[in-house]
Amino acid sequence: MTLSTKYVAGHDISGRVPGGVVNARKCIGFCPQVDPLLDLMSGRETLSFFGRLRGIPDQKLNDYVSTLIDALTLSPHADKPAGTYSGGNKRKLSLGIALIGNPQVLFIDEASSGMDPLARRKMWDLISNVSKNRSVVLTTHSMEEAEALCSRLTIMVAGQMKCIGSVQHLKSTYLNGYTVDLQCSMGASKLDVNNVKKQKHVLETALPFATLAEQHNRLLRFFTPSMSSN
């Protein structure tokens, strides 16, 4: 059997090069799904603590932490105990911990887990900004999140990699169809059969193969197969 060679940030982690694994770890930042925070420490204290662990010199630490807090948009909460933070701000602080030391490779597990839609969008914007000058490996159960953040995707089932490629490649290869949600105005809360047919006709004009899959009050959900399945 031939041994494979694996690299992280240019460092051999196969175990055959002395110091390869140690040097690779210095280039990695990790944001776990469960926030690694101490409730009684403020955001500033937390980042300073991990900054010292990363070896940032004391004379540079305060300025470094302040700059990172601004980038995380945590300035209004920087000196409050982390235990009082909202779920979104806790995720931001956890991402800040992973970014300390400016790692070349960043691993993020379930970036926006438990967030409301607005906080999720802000987290996505933050990750997009920090990914411009580093490699980011993201695990998520949300296809929407993967599409928003990733240039290349892989899908794993029971621990095995099933496919890999760009978002468009995976969609064109494996997608069976699309779901289209049509939200009617507030005045149409009780849709009669004729009104449903009218709305359906409008959608079918643009999507000839669309079929009404569900109806819940003002929400009409249509399914349309992909071109490949047609």
Automatic annotation (TrEMBL):
- The species this protein belongs to is Proboscia inermis
Protein name in the entry: ABC transporter domain-containing protein
Molecular-function annotations in GO: ABC-type transporter activity; ATP binding; ATP hydrolysis activity; lipid transporter activity
Q: Which CDD domains match?
A: ABC_subfamily_A (cd03263)
- One Pfam match, given by its short name, reads ABC_tran
Keywords from UniProt, A to Z, are: Repeat, Transport
Entry GO CC? membrane
Domain ABC transporter stretches = 22-112
This protein's record includes keyword Repeat: yes
Database matches in InterPro entries: ABC_transporter-like_ATP-bd, ABC_transporter-like_CS, ABCA, P-loop_NTPase
Q: Which residues cross the membrane?
A: none
